[in-house]
Amino acid sequence: MAALLLSGCAVGPDFKKPDAPEVSDYTPTPVTGAAATPDVTGGEAQRFAKGGDISGDWWTLFHSPTLDALIAQAIKNNSDLKAAQAALKSAHETALAGRGAFLPSVTAGFAANHFQQPGSLAPVPITNAFQYDLFTPEVNVSYMPDVFGLTRRTVESLNAQANAARYQMLATYTTLINNVVATAIQEASTQRQIDATNEMVTAMKQSLDILKYQLDKGYASGADYAAQKAATAATEATLPPLIKQDAQLKDQLAVLVGRFPSQQPAEKLDLTTLKLPEDIPVSLPSALVAQRPDVLQAEANLHSASALIGVAVANRLPNLTLSAQGGSSALVFNQLFTDGTDFWNVGANLAATLFDAGSLYYTEQAARANYDQSAAQYRSTVLAAFQNVADTLTALQQDGEALKAAADSDAAAKSALDITQYQLKDGYSNTLALLNAEQAYQQAHIALLSAEASRYADTAALFQALGGGWWHRSDDLGEANAK
What we know:
By secondary structure, this protein is α+β, with helices and mostly antiparallel strands. The chain has helices spanning 2-6, 65-77, 79-98, 150-217, 222-236, 239-256, 285-288, 293-314, 359-425, 431-465, 476-482, and strands spanning 33-34, 46-50, 105-116, 131-143, 279-282, 319-328, 342-351. α4 (150-217) packs antiparallel against α6 and α9 (359-425) runs antiparallel to α10 (431-465). The longest helix is centred in the middle third of the chain and has 68 residues, at 150-217.
């Protein structure tokens, strides 16, 4: 038996970690950075440091105490993150429970019974009493040697599932951080758009007052006044959607940090106080698959599927069970464990399925198909991860160009509006020119505010796309990853 146990092997394939993709960059043409736009919020130049490492608290690069406070609240209170952490604990404990199959199972019991035997059906005790008590303490030992690796493959699969739960939790964490940053930035941008629109409405109403004065003096036509009034009303009509969007973003931010919408956080982000990270580390493509939680989760799922093939194969092979039982049985309690009351037995049971209409065979084939599915899902996840990084790098590069163009357009439109207002006041321009200038400036300024917010949001998205730096955390989250 010892020779049999020592020669035992784990049937099924041994898992081989997928190789890193053999690519040297994320984009066809290397992206090195983004241009600067002086004197504009978020206008700093950005440089991409290829091969750099991401810090565990990358959001502090924005130098915003408000953002830091919101993220701290989210990590502490967010329900989705807590649920993912609980799922990780459940999977971890399940894996630990599965390891118990490597050792024998020992149970102890004590039975106390009172019998009344009919005389026609005896056996009866040696005392010939038909009514008697029987006390029986006993210990049972059962052990299934892992001859073909059924236990090893089962535990291997459970450990892989625990790893998948761990990376799912980390994916939830990195997504949460990015959502908090993106929502706070978008809310701050929307608030600035509301303020800019209110300023535009005020300016248009001032122009409307001037036209009313000119109309009363006979210098302007009723059509000009009506056109300006309609344009002012149209601009005011853009406010309610912005206010609605702002309220929804505040509600979303409250939920992200673990609050009810009626308990919105006191922290209010101001985009003008943010510092745009200028030197951004960009992990090598070979390192990305070892950093992205979604890729690591897909790899863990692939590992579990590989181990389950071994489980299916082992279930088709004979199972050996060793058992032993020992105890004492006596009619009187104080006679337990005296001479003549003990009993014991040892045994072995070898069982194999001879016919099951192909059920175990098809179960094995299903396990192999599940592995193929997991392999395809892993490759799809890797491709999506590389696409995510490539898209974000390109977005950041173009964000720099877009911000510069938006800033130039905003400055030109504001200058044109100021000139037109002066000319209209002095009678050198007409209402149509003013309307065109006001609309051009409103569109240019809103575009500038959106371009500023996009640079911040896409910067945060790049940190998430590269994995989020979770491997550098030293708090409870990092300890959970180390288990």
